[in-house]
Please model this.
Amino acid sequence: MTDDQKGNRIWRTMGLVSTISSYIVGGTVGGVFIGLWLGNQFGAKPFFIITFLLLGLGTGFYGVYKAVEPFLGEGQK
Model:
């Protein structure tokens, strides 16, 4: 493997790690904020926070799966 290929692989890995972390953090934080807002609107904070936290986590992990999916079969050729 040449130095240029190693450099490209490092940038590609850093981009993938950044994407994964943004999906997880964004889904979680977004779910909590939506849950807090809806909880304040309807007076049922714990229910909405927990519900949207779980929905945000689920959405984040689905996004991670879709981002990583092209790399899953890469080493089997």
Summary: Residues 3-42 form the longest helix (40 residues). The mean pLDDT is 89. DSSP finds two helices and no strands in the chain.
